Amino acid sequence: MNIRRHLMKIKWAKTIGTGMLVAAMVAVLSACGQSKSTDNASGQSGQAEKEPTVLSFMTTWSETDPFTGVYYKNAMAFQEANPDIKLDIETIPYNDYPVKLSTTAAAGKLPDLILMIDGSATFQQIARSGALMPIDDMMGHWKEDFLPSSKIQEYNVDGKQYGIPGEISYTTVIYYNKKILRDAGYTEFPKTYEAFKAMVKDLKSKKITPISYGNKVGTVVQASLLSPVNERISGSGLYEEIKSGKQKFTDPEFMSALKEVKELSDLGAFNVDLNSIDNVQATNLFLSGNSAMYVDGSWGAKQISKDKSPDFELGFAMFPEFEGGKGSLSTTIGSTNQGVSLSAKLDDAKKAAAEKFLQFMYSKESYQNIMRDGNMVPANVEAPADVNPLFKEMINEFAGVKEVIPPFNIVMPANVTTVAKNGLQGLTTPGGSAPEAVAEELQKELGQ
């Protein structure tokens, strides 16, 4: 018997007199003899279930994608834990996503939730158009000691936060063969650039290729060599100063970095075919023992750990400091990615649901899942016990990083990075471009 309905009937009966009360009581008592199934059906009709809040979500995440599968699984865990919220997911192939994002935004048809793969110029343009909702009023969920603002700044536009990144990709990790370095007399990796350069010279004199590089696409040297050299010499603000006109590519600070790249090339630091092979081929050179070091992003660790032989002794190092330079080991080059932005058109109910989604997706537990998948994260989260030991070693190497700044090829306009691609490939080719010529071409292309 439905007690709630029974009490409602008694209350109603008191308002219409004793005679009706008796009749109502008889009716109620008769109803008590009915089957439980009838009562249950009656109760359900009086308590209609609340419809879930539906959030449309455009993303590249998919269960089978080796790069984003962990995010999809985290999203499904959110869905299971929050049955009052439904995710209506539209999955776009990664290579098609930039065009889809741009055209959808231009048409004014952005969904409720939008994956912003990184803090690119497209993301910034959409944010400045007013199509996205700032989440500054939600940021109290993430304390500074858990999620430092210096590590999420790529999703901040003009002082407003429009998303939280899921991971950090450090563009400069020096992977090294511990045995080769040990046999050459180095029991620890050099702490300064001068000591690093001396080691390069020494390795070359011993007929060992110091560093394998795969710069066929042209952006690898920009991101993993030019950018850290610039930071270690000039600090973190050089590229913005060049873009604003306060400095030039032809000024001494940027020129110093180009000269260092040229000097490394002239020392024979790299494989001679670095500009004609890709990362996969360069990795194979390193893992086969044909170079002492390999420079690439943190994303390479997962595959290197899988492909290396059991007896291969793998080490990780940050790019060393320049003595007297303005840079610091507490800063490194990288980009943050896998952030979710909100449509500016969300009503209060959808905004509340979206806030719960962000809290879940960028929680300690979710970040630890991302780490288990072999990715670095912007949050100060302890690596779970079941993380790959080699990956944990790399995490420890970068534990002191306080600030992440984007590389040259992310900060600069596309036309400038194209000129840099050609210039740096010339700079690292024997008898190729001179640093002064590369700087002049870059300044000309920037149009200042």
Write the layout of secondary structure elements.
Elements: H1 3-13, H2 18-31, H3 36-46, E1 53-59, H4 69-81, E2 85-91, H5 97-106, E3 113-118, H6 121-128, E4 132-133, E5 156-157, E6 160-161, E7 167-170, E8 173-177, H7 178-183, H8 193-205, E9 211-212, H9 220-234, H10 238-244, H11 252-266, H12 279-287, E10 293-296, H13 300-307, E11 314-317, E12 331-343, H14 348-361, H15 364-372, H16 389-397, E13 403-405, H17 408-411, H18 414-427, H19 435-446
Parallel strand pairs: 1-2, 1-3, 9-10, 12-13
Antiparallel strand pairs: 3-12, 4-12, 5-6, 7-12, 8-10, 8-11
Helix pairs in contact: 1-2, 9-11, 11-19, 18-19
Task: State the main characteristics.
single chain; SBP; seven-stranded mixed β-sheet; four-stranded mixed β-sheet; palmitate; Bact_solute-bd_prot1; D-Maltodextrin-Binding Protein, domain 2; 19 helices; lipoprotein
Description of the molecule:
This is Extracellular solute-binding protein. InterPro entries: Bact_solute-bd_prot1, SBP. Pfam families: SBP_bac_8. Keywords: Cell membrane, Lipoprotein, Membrane, Palmitate, Signal. The protein is of the alpha/beta class and 448 residues long. It folds into three domains: 44 residues, no CATH class; 184 residues, 3-Layer(aba) Sandwich (D-Maltodextrin-Binding Protein, domain 2); 202 residues, Periplasmic binding protein-like II (D-Maltodextrin-Binding Protein, domain 2, 3-Layer(aba) Sandwich), CATH 3.40.190. It is built from 19 helices and 13 strands. The strands form three sheets. Strands 1, 2, 3, 4, 7, 12 and 13 form a seven-stranded mixed β-sheet that branches. A four-stranded mixed β-sheet has the order 9-10-8-11, sandwiched between helices. A two-stranded antiparallel ribbon has the order 5-6. Helix 4 links the parallel strand 1 and strand 2. Helix 9 crosses helix 11, helix 11 packs across helix 19 and helix 18 runs antiparallel to helix 19. It is globular and about 75 Å long. The termini are far apart. The N terminus is likely disordered.
